[in-house]
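Backbone description:
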Amino acid sequence: VIGFQPDVVHCHDWQTGLIPVLLKDTFRGGDFFRNMKSVITIHNLKFQGVWDVKTIKRFTELPDYYFAPDKLEAYKDGNLLKGGIVYADAITTVSNTYAEEIKMPFYGEGLDGLMRARANSLRGIVNGIDYDDFDPETDPFIAQKYNAKNFRKEKAKNKKVLQQELGLPVDEKKFMVGIVSRLTDQKGLDLIQCVMDELCSDDMQLVVLGTGDERYENMFRHYDWKYHDRVSAQIYYSEAMSHKIYAACDAFLMPSLFEPCGLSQLMALRYGTVPIVRETGGLKDTVQPYNEYESTGTGFSFANYNAHEMLGSIRYAKYVYYSRRREWNKIIDRAMAADFSWKTSAAKYQELYDWLIG
């Protein structure tokens, strides 16, 4: 209609999964679409756009040929994401580790066989964050601006302001851990639930922001009530509050069951708030575990989906924070020096497009 003829159509998730299919079918006849290539990016394989075959046939007007197990049909239903994965010229997902994980049954959400079959066309490119929006030096939401040079003096001022705002005991030396998250199973909150009493008996504060499943919302409300001087549960979502938590906390907890990329840990690194993560998907690719012997690493991590392994990592981080403060500050130096802006990722997408058109 507008006469714009792209070389590559880049599709994201199941909502656009039909485009690679239609490019190979309905639109293939005319010269206009003949050489167009398609890429599909999987942001989270759990969400696939599944309806019964009859419904998808009705709104796509595709012939029966497409509703076979090697095309759009999966487990007797129609699956829009599967269509996109089968017909796209290239497939990307949002981290290298996740690209490997989804070839296995545990992470593959029923499509692991297809991901293995298309392994040659699959690559992982990590997401970035906007380094202008997330910048502790210019952030309008935080009480005290700071940067990689002066965080030792300035960062803790944000903690005192947040403690005051949330009604926690004001103590800039207290180890404070933040969670900003959708409150769902994917995010590893059942692990936190298992050891919450143990965490709350430790010398630390926990600040939670987010909404989601009722059971997790109520769990955090309950612990806020039970340990009001240690836990603050903010069961809503606010952009301003999330920035305050990234700036104020010492560590950021993200024990996900699976995490295609994850952005919160990138924001935490940017703000010099040390991530404590499970080694899965993008968390494994973006947080380098602290090694006390080589003095390397930008955060703390644990491998198995196990509550006490997570508790061990939190306690190790707390030990370094209280007893080896110099080492802790060096972790922050490295975290704030890491670059997860869009620059690097954009270059990789450019390379992918060039390869497709070439």
